[in-house]
Design brief:
heteropentamer; A mainly alpha (about 230); B alpha/beta (about 240); C mainly alpha (about 1050); D mainly alpha (about 300); E mainly alpha (about 120); C: about 1050 residues; mainly alpha; two-stranded antiparallel sheet; 41 helices; D: about 300 residues; about 0% strand
Chain lengths: ~230, ~240, ~1050, ~300, ~120
């Protein structure tokens, strides 16, 4: 009870800080320098229609690389955590009732569509809302569907790992190419910018986003697979 | 303990000899030979009687080179009688008045000394039990030559009223060289003063050589002493 | 130059590449990891080299081909390069260290390790706030993974607690970042700094949140429970990384933030830092588990660096030097210790005794501790020197006090631990045999010494590793394989050689001290010929002590003086620690000495007022309000060394428990260092008044009390060496008293004491030590009757006690004579009374010493004892000769000093005519006295021989014993509690009031630590609450301020 | 002043006078003490007889070198102390060897004999000797204290440490004596004097009958003779110091004899009146009664 | 009322923290942290929001030339994406930990994991 009270008291304090932030918050009337630069320069410089994507993939590409790394790291560690000691325990598996017909059929029907949609989302990241992360997550949701429908099925970690690693390497590689061919690390202008608003435009952004999408998809899948394997069936 | 010591002694190079000396081990535990371990681990036997006490016997001390000096010394010895403050028996009670104003023995150069080293007169005051005899012998031997013994009261002469006691000695002279007896039971302080005066005369005449006599007939005295003292747990001569 | 971006890209590439490999290809994965780390290390190293040699300027790394603030940019300056190098090197070494574990865990673990070091490098280099956050999160997550490298099952829970805490941190940080962005319109740190006015006005809360989040990442006290759990349970190699690399990276981050925050926030950082430093060190006192202790120590060290970071405004251009010094020393030391802990099987502090079997590792241990504490010649020493000077110059006295207190506590528990390692039973498993791990530790040691050299070069002062005496001492480390006798000869040659070399440069005062230290030291070392074998550790320590002393004498500025002071303290600590039972005593010696040293440091710092070089002679020019304080600080510092009463409790144990040939060194020689300091102080500063009290007068009282109580306590000792030790307290009290009289003869007397005390105390310690060696005990009542068995030792003690008691005709009388003449002109008479009381008490203990050991009854077990070994006796005999010579011709030494002192105190010089020494008041002719006494003695002796030529030699029980015979020697030897009646009368004066006081202080600290550390309940939620509470409290305080 | 050979016979003469005077004086003191007890006491020449007798004892034992040397130290201390202080003021003949050192020398040389004696007694191995030494040393720590303070006080008063000069300053009139110019110092010193004379109430060191006679328990024959010799020289030597410092010194032998007698008599007088103190009692006594006097003496100078 | 989103975000953070600090079950804590993270994200985007403007995507609706006047601040949007992903990563990690903890300790009560303390 004391603890709860203390927490409330502390949160009141934190709340006070937040309130202070809010009270002092004055919404901008116009874009600040940075945002203005992005709004004005993204299209001519990078050729990307989605400014957010341009920021994510190029301007703040290092963050994104970190982000991807976070996922990679998480996947690896989840693997580590769960692998730890799993060898010495082999729980007896019991047979599950087969998944329902509806689920199976639905999965078969939807899975290709989901994957296709995912691919669409990450390849069009520079044009439309969406991108590698969103696309990757969609792909992973397909994976989730498969896991639900085939709870006992074991997926090839190997494949996932290869996809994940190659995508990651490619991301880094493209970034390094930026040093060699363009203005710096992660500069997307190693490829021609193309026509504004088209699929093959905005330099390396679509390529990077593709890899990101693959990587994110693979990593989420890896996590899901790993987590699902923990289930004591 | 003793057996084990014997066994271990046999292994020593000089073991058999030591065994010989161990035959008459006194009963006192603290005088038993014992194995001691030194700080650096060496082990050896400590024989208290051998190691703690000087083994030499008494020697006859010759007088000074010239007669005149010896006479001077004898005069001084006579005029400076330092009595060992050791009351061996009931006669000691008669010694105390000598220190009082009434008798004031100090007038005659007679003083009491608390340590035998510094005293030259041993007054055996009355009967001497065997137990006390041992102490008396020790004290006597610790006094320096020349030293005088005065037997006080008839007990020191023939046992007196304890003539048939099982544990008093009858004749002091068998055990210590007595220079002078003062008879009586008890002799009065006046008698004591008289006795001391006589002793002075003896000393001045150079006739009070009890210490040298003791040294000359040491074996005889020792034999006598050991005859009555069964637990002889001290060296033959207590320096 | 290869772009530094490859430090990040390379690590990431390597990590992703590892994913491609098959799981069983462990070897290949490992090689790749190592290659990547080597590459990044090389890269960072090459940049550091280039930057520091001036070949390149700090480089700005743009990403996305766009200028900041629109794209993320990185920066690599010299500080960043050093940090990145540190991080990657630590990572590489840890990877090497972790070889087995990594092989077991597979490529994923290696990838996580790579990313961890990448993320830390990123934190160091990035100039973008949000990017900083990303790298922080990467660190957090990879930490979550690397914790699992540990085999300790508790690590899992620790990792979870850590994640909980970091969730809270990241929430705060994100909120802060976005509002900071809103306030400044940029995420670039440089932009924010430029707009800091706006940020701090409108977005102060935003900045606060970011700031506090980064501070929390530093694991500051007390919001750091999770971190301690990690330190305790994680794999030591990872803990090394966390402590050395992650801590450093976070500090760089804080530094970046403070560029925005400006002075106001620097103060906040300083306060948090110093509280952390003191608090964590205090808590560490109660620790018994090595890694948790190291954790606390890490927190403390990070707090210290945070403090330095917060003080950058006053440190000015020396900021990098100071912060770098402390940080690198901490990083290397702490990483090294964690690595070492992996070699030790047991987790209790005492388990480190296992190191004892391996001198190299022990040396490593010692080096790491010295690095942490900041002892010379390590970087921390230079850094702390400057830090203390800077904060003293800015009158931050409270911080100064806290800093020194924390450092003292830290030294206390760290050296207590070292004591365990040296002294405790080896009852644990031996150290792990892994070659890799040892190699890693050795690299850390090398790095430490390399840093020591570099910092010495960078410092404006002399490089201590260029000082010949120090090098000479260190050379013995390399010569440890030689037999002790050879080393001893070398050491003696070295001391004498240095003396001969420096001889022309000494003034008379220095000459006297140099004679004692160098020639006298060589003389004592003769006794060391006695030891055979190799005597590992003895010579480096002893020579370090001598080096310190030699340098102390000639030091001209405060830095050299203090460095020398610290060296001799450390050297002597190791020496003392060698004694059999000396563990607690060596510790208390060290704590008191360091405490004193810190006071000296504070005194110098106050006096210097920020001057880089402060000549000792300029102490005379310290201005008024400050001068008495400087004087008091320095004086108390020096008096700690001379063991003035109240500060003396370390001495008896330390001197008594030391080895036979060490006791004379630490007593005969080392104590003089304090006197030398006092001489120096009084010569420069003269009389000072504090609140109207003449400080010299206070010193006089202290000296008199020391003399009285020292002597009195000596009289009640049963242990011969302890007796001598207490007597040293008394003797030093006399010397202090003489100095404090501030007149010519008083100083002369003090010098006389310096010489005499050296001679007779060395001699007595040697002979008593020899006796103790032979008899196997130091308790006097267990000895007795050794005169015939150890006649030479007896002669030495006899001469020694006659000299010491001041009885004519030996040299001690000279001291007393000068003393009487000196007090005739002194203004203060009351303290004399104490001195008068203490004089005869010296007879008590001196007689007891000689009687109980050499006279009386010989014990059975000592019947076969031999005379002390030749090499112990030889110096004693030389001392006897010295004493006689000095007694006959005190002018040999004193005349020149007399003239020298006249430069300072011209009044009352002695006149030396022929054989007679004349003062204003009296006269004294040593030779005549000696001759007269000698003639009378010989005549009477001859007479006695004549009249008593036939004396019968008797044995020990041939005593008159009231007609009985003694029972046993033990019961006949009157020695135990020899002064029982005296104790009845005056024993109350020897009541251990100071021992009780200091014991109460330490108990209080320990109890506090024991109680307060219970706030770390082990519950992750509570830790998170601490964190929030910390945030709120800092917020409230900051608002309140 | 320098050494001249003529000093040797002069000093021996002093020694001779003092020894004889001392032998008689101590006997006289004993007689006076005896008279208090209504006895006649020893004959006045008894000390001579005892001395001769002890030298005439034929046998002796030795416990070792220090035992042998103890009495030598003891007597050297006594003789040395006597010779380091001028016996008669203004007489070159009886200034002895005082050129070698001043008051401080005398002050510290007092301990020479005691130290040697203690060592000799220690080697005898007799516990009572050691106990006696323990008591003696314990007592001396506080007993000497008032004296030291008094010496310091009068050294301050006369601004010199030279005995001759101190005596010179007291010449002219009785009222110039330190006794009258600095009564506090003298009082302190005289109390201290009591403590150093081995007489009641401060004779627990020897404590005859209890620890036989303390340190000399094992000494006999010629050792004892040497110590007896010292026993007559040493107190007088000490009294000479007191006499010079506090009572105007002595310019002629009769004055010397008188003053020495009176000072000696003071200790006897106290001794026959008071019973014996235990060590801790005497320590406390000196601290409580004598020390404040000494402190006062220093402060008022 | 402009700040309603932000206020909601802060409230979510506080609720999340309250949950995380008072629930002893670690799964609940993880969920609570997820709530808090959501709150953070909400705060993040709400800071960049400007009334009456549109998403920063240049297409026919928002021509490049008018972008400056028509789009909202794109930076928070970019940041929030990163923040979300990181949040997911940490959550996944915590879940994995929770699993292992439950396996090894047999409990999900955080107050039971106190073998490391002081």
């Amino acid at each position: 009870m004391i603890k709860r009270f203390a927490v409330i008291l502390l949160l009141l304090g934190i709340g006070a800080i937040f309130t202070g932030l809010m009270v002092n918050y004055v919404p901008d009337k116009a874009l600040n320098v940075t945002a203005r630069y992005y709004a004005e320069q993204t299209a001519p410089d990078l050729g990307a229609a989605n400014i957010v994507t341009a920021i994510i993939v190029t301007y703040r590409g290092l963050d994104t690389l970190g982000e991807v790394t976070v996922l990679f790291l998480t996947a690896a560690i989840v693997g580590l955590v769960l692998a730890r000691g799993s060898s010495d325990e082999a729980p007896a598996r019991r047979d599950l009732p087969p998944p329902g017909e509806l689920l199976l059929t639905g999965t078969r029907l939807l899975l290709p569509l989901i994957l296709l949609f995912g691919a669409y989302v990450f390849t069009h990241g520079h044009l439309t809302p969406g991108g590698g992360f969103q696309g990757g997550a969609i792909i992973a949701s397909g994976m989730l569907l498969m896991l639900l429908s085939h709870p006992l099925r074991r997926f090839g970690h190997r494949l996932i790992a290869i996809v994940e690693s190659i995508a990651g390497l490619a991301f880094v590689g493209i970034g390094v190419l930026g040093i060699a061919l363009a203005g710096g690390f992660l500069d997307n202008r190693i490829l021609p910018l193309g026509t504004f608003g088209e699929l093959f435009s905005a330099g390396a952004i679509p390529i990077i986003y593709t890899f990101v999408g693959l990587k994110v998809g693979a990593e989420f899948s890896s996590m899901l697979v790993n987590l699902s394997e923990t289930e004591d069936l | 303990m003793k057996d084990e010591l014997d066994k271990r002694l046999d292994n020593q190079p000089d073991g058999p000899e030591r065994r010989g000396s161990l035959k008459d081990i006194p009963v006192r535990e603290e005088l038993l030979p014992r194995w001691v371990k030194g700080p650096e681990g060496q082990e050896y036997v400590v024989e208290p009687l051998q190691d703690y006490f000087c083994q030499a016997g008494p020697t006859v001390q010759t007088p000074a080179y010239t007669r005149i000096i010896e006479d001077l010394f004898n005069w001084a010895r006579a005029e400076s009688l330092w009595i060992l403050g050791f009351g061996t028996g009931c006669g000691a009670i008669e010694m105390r008045p000598l220190m009082t104003p009434r008798f004031d023995a100090y007038r005659y150069g007679i003083q009491w000394r608390p340590t035998p080293r510094q005293a030259n007169l041993f007054v055996i005051s009355g009967y001497l039990s065997v137990k006390t005899l041992k102490r008396a012998i020790r004290s006597y031997e610790q006094m320096q030559n020349p030293k005088y013994v005065v037997g006080l009261g008839s007990c020191t002469i023939n046992g007196g009223m304890y003539w048939d006691s099982y544990n008093t000695i009858k004749r002091l002279d068998d055990y210590l060289p007595v220079d002078l007896y003062i008879t009586g039971c008890m002799p009065r302080p006046e008698a004591l003063l008289q006795g001391f005066d006589d002793l002075k005369k003896l000393i001045r005449a150079g006739k009070a050589e009890g210490a040298n006599h003791y040294a000359e007939h040491f074996d005889w005295y020792k034999a006598n002493q050991k005859r009555v003292i069964k637990d002889w747990d001290m060296p033959d001569y207590s320096w | 130059m290869v772009s530094p971006i490859f430090i990040i890209a390379g690590s990431l590439g390597g990590a992703f590449l590892l994913g491609l490999l098959r799981d069983p290809w462990r070897g290949a994965s490992y090689v790749i990891s190592l290659l990547v780390l080597t590459f990044t290390t090389w890269l960072a190293g090459s940049w550091l080299w280039a930057l520091s040699s001036g070949a390149v300027t700090p480089v700005e790394i743009l990403t996305a081909g766009t200028q900041p603030p629109f794209a993320v940019n990185l920066r690599l300056g010299i500080a960043e390069a050093a940090m990145v190098l540190l991080i990657n090197l630590t990572g590489l070494l840890s990877a090497l260290y972790l070889k087995d574990t990594l092989f077991k865990q597979g490529r994923r673990a290696m990838a996580v390790l790579l990313i961890f070091s990448m993320a830390l490098s990123g934190i160091v280099m990035t100039r973008d706030l949000f990017n900083l956050f990303v790298f922080f999160e990467l660190t957090v997550i990879s930490t979550g993974g690397l914790i699992l490298l540990s085999r300790d099952p508790r690590a899992l829970a620790a990792g979870f607690k850590y994640l909980v805490a970091s969730q809270v941190v990241s929430i705060l940080m994100l909120v802060g970042i976005i509002f900071a962005y809103h306030a400044t319109g940029s995420l670039n740190l440089d932009d924010m700094a430029a707009a800091s006015a706006a940020l701090l006005r409108g977005g102060a809360l935003a900045f606060f949140l970011v700031f506090i989040a980064v501070v929390a990442e530093l694991k500051v006290f007390p919001a750091n429970g999770w971190a301690l759990d990690i330190y305790e349970s994680a794999h030591p190699a990872f803990s090394a990384l966390v402590s050395a690399a992650a801590g450093s990276a976070s500090l760089v981050a804080i530094d970046k933030l403070l560029q925005i925050g400006g002075p106001a926030w620097m103060d906040v950082a300083s306060i948090i830092g110093i509280v952390s430093f003191v608090g964590a060190n205090l808590f560490a006192l109660a620790q018994r588990v090595d890694r948790r202790l190291l954790g606390y120590s890490s927190v403390a060290q990070i707090g210290l660096i945070l403090f330095v970071v917060g003080q950058q405004d006053i440190l000015g251009e020396r900021y990098l030097f100071v912060a770098g010094g402390v940080l690198l020393a901490h990083a290397v030391g702490k990483a090294g210790l964690f690595w070492l802990s992996g070699l030790v099987a047991g987790r209790d502090l005492t388990a480190w005794s296992a190191l004892r079997g391996n001198p190299l590792l022990l040396f490593a241990f010692a080096s790491f501790l010295a690095l942490l504490i900041g002892l010379p010649p390590f970087p921390g020493f230079y850094a702390k020197w400057e830090l203390v000077h800077a904060i003293a110059a800015h009158d931050h006295l409270l911080e100064l006090a806290l800093l020194l207190f924390g450092a003292l506590v830290e030294a206390g528990y760290l050296y207590r631990w070292f004591g365990y390692a040296i002294k405790r039973e080896i009852d644990h498993e031996p150290i792990a045999p892994s070659l890799y791990k040892r190699a890693v530790v050795c690299v850390a040691v090398l790095a430490g010494w390399l840093l020591a050299y570099v910092w010495g070069e960078l410092s404006p002062h002399d490089n201590l590793l260029h000082a010949v005496p120090v090098l000479f001492a260190l050379a013995f480390l390399a010569l440890e394989w030689l037999p002790a006798r050879v080393k001893n000869a070398l050491a003696i040659a070295g001391l004498l050689g240095w003396f001969a070399f420096s001889y022309p440069a000494y003034d008379p005062l220095q000459l006297i001290f140099a004679l004692i230290v160098l020639a006298g030291g060589a003389l004592i070392l003769l006794a060391s010929f006695h030891s055979d074998g190799r005597r590992l550790g003895f010579y480096p320590s002893a020579m370090l002590m001598y080096a310190g002393l030699a340098m102390l004498i000639v030091a001209e500025d405060s830095f050299n003086f203090f460095a020398a002071w610290e060296s001799l303290t450390i050297g002597s600590y190791f020496l003392i620690l060698r004694g059999r039972q000396s563990e607690p005593h060596a510790l208390s010696y060290l704590v008191f000495s360091l405490g004193g040293a810190f006071l000296i440091l504070a005194g110098f710092a106050l006096a210097a007022q920020g001057n880089v070089q402060f000549l000792l002679v300029s102490l005379a020019e310290v201005a008024e309000p400050l001068a008495p304080w400087v004087f008091a600080l320095l004086a108390v510092g020096f008096m700690t060394k001379t063991a003035a009463i109240g500060l003396h409790i370390w001495l008896p144990g330390a001197h008594a428990e030391a080895e036979t040939d060490v006791s004379p060194m630490v007593s005969g020689i080392l104590l003089k260092a304090g006197l030398f300091g006092l001489f120096m102080l009084l010569m420069t500063m003269g009389r000072q008044e504090l609140y109207g009290v003449d400080l010299a007068h206070v010193m006089m009282w202290i000296g008199a009390l020391s003399a009285l109580l020292g002597n009195l306590m000596a009289a009640f000792q049963e242990d011969a060496k302890r007796l001598l030790a207490y007597s040293s307290i008394g003797q030093m009290g006399y010397a202090l008293f003489g100095l404090a009289m501030m007149n010519h003869l008083g100083w002369l007397m003090a010098l006389m004491f310096v010489i005499n005390h050296y001679i007779y105390k060395s001699m007595l310690f040697l002979s008593v030590g020899g006796v103790a060696k032979r008899t196997g005990t130091r308790a006097m009542y267990q000895m007795g009757g050794l005169i015939t068995l150890m006649p030479l030792s007896f002669i030495a003690v006899l001469i020694g006690i006659i000299a010491m008691s001041g009885v004519p005709p030996l040299s001690g009388f000279g001291g007393r004579w000068i003393f009487y003449n000196a007090i005739m002109t002194s203004e203060y008479r009351l303290p004399m009374i104490l001195i008068f009381v203490s004089g005869p008490i010296a007879f008590l203990y001196l007689f007891r010493l000689i009687h109980s050991i050499f006279l009386g009854q010989l014990k059975d077990e000592h019947r076969r004892v031999k005379e002390a070994p030749f090499w112990l006796v030889l110096p004693q005999m030389i001392y006897v000769v010295c004493l006689l010579v000095f007694a006959l011709a005190p002018g040999l030494a004193l005349r020149r000093v007399d003239a020298y002192i006249s430069n300072f105190l011209p009044q009352g010089a002695l006149s030396w005519e022929g054989l007679t020494i004349t003062s204003e008041f009296g006269y004294w002719s040593p030779v005549s006295i000696m001759l007269i006494v000698g003639v009378i003695f010989v005549v009477i002796f001859a007479w006695l021989l004549f009249v008593n030529r036939r004396a019968q030699k008797v044995k020990q029980f041939n005593i008159v014993f009231a007609a009985e015979r003694p029972y046993r020697p033990e019961t006949t030897h009157y020695a135990w509690n020899f002064y029982a009646p005296y104790k009845k009368a005056l024993g109350f004066l020897a009541w251990p009031v100071f021992e009780r006081f200091w014991a109460a202080v330490t108990d209080l600290l320990h109890t506090l630590a024991e109680l307060l550390r219970r706030i770390y309940t082990g519950n992750g939620q509570v830790y998170a609450i601490h964190l929030l509470a910390f945030v709120v409290v800092v917020y409230l305080l900051k608002e309140g301020l | 002043m320098q050494f001249e050979w003529i000093m040797v016979p002069y000093s021996l003469l002093t020694l001779f006078i003092v020894v004889n005077y001392g032998l008689l004086l101590t006997a006289l003191m004993q007689k006076i003490g005896a008279r208090v007890g209504r006895r006649h006491g020893i004959p006045i020449w008894q000390n001579y007889v005892d001395l001769i007798k002890n030298y005439g004892i034929r046998s002796s034992i030795t416990h070792g070198v220090m035992f042998y040397l103890g009495p030598v130290f003891r007597l050297t201390g006594g003789v040395g102390l006597l010779l380091f202080v001028p016996t008669l003021y203004g007489s070159e003949m009886f200034s002895n060897l005082s050129f070698a050192g001043d008051l401080i020398l005398a002050l510290y040389f007092i301990f020479f004999g005691s130290l040697g004696m203690a060592l000799g007694a220690g080697e005898s191995g007799h516990p009572h000797s050691a106990i006696g030494v323990s008591r003696g040393l314990s007592q001396v720590t506080t007993a000497e204290l008032p004296f030291a303070l008094a010496v310091f006080a009068i050294a301050l008063q006369y601004q010199t440490l030279s005995v001759t000069e101190i005596v010179a300053a007291q010449q002219g009139s009785v009222w110039n004596w330190t006794l009258f110019t600095n009564p506090l110092a003298v009082a302190a010193a005289m109390l201290s004097f009591l403590g150093s004379m081995m007489r009641p109430p401060f004779d627990v060191v020897l404590a005859p009958q209890e620890i036989p006679i303390g340190p000399p328990t094992e000494y006999h024959s010629s050792y004892l003779a040497l110590m007896q010799t010292n026993r007559v020289i040493f107190p007088i030597a000490k009294i000479v110091v007191y006499m010079n410092l506090f009572f105007g010194g002595a310019a002629t032998w009769p004055v010397f004899f008188l003053k020495v007698f009176l000072i000696y008599f003071f200790s006897l007088f106290v001794g026959v009146v008071f019973p014996r103190f235990r060590v801790e009692q005497s320590v406390r006594w000196f601290l409580v009664w004598a020390l404040p006097l000494g402190i006062a003496a220093i402060l008022v100078v | 009322m402009d700040l309603i989103a932000m206020a909601t975000g802060f409230l979510l953070i506080l609720i999340g923290l309250f949950g995380a600090l008072t629930n002893r079950n670690i799964l609940r804590m993880i969920v609570a942290f997820a709530v808090a993270n959501t709150g953070v994200n909400l705060v993040l985007v709400s800071v960049g929001y400007m009334t009456g403007r549109t998403a920063p995507i240049l297409d026919s609706a928002v021509p490049v030339a008018e972008a400056t006047a028509r789009v909202i601040d794109p930076v928070p949007q970019a940041l929030v994406l990163t923040a979300i992903v990181i949040g997911v990563g940490v959550t996944a990690l915590m879940l994995a930990y929770a699993y292992r903890l439950f396996k090894t300790r047999g409990t999900l009560d955080i107050s039971r994991y106190t073998d490391l303390k002081w």
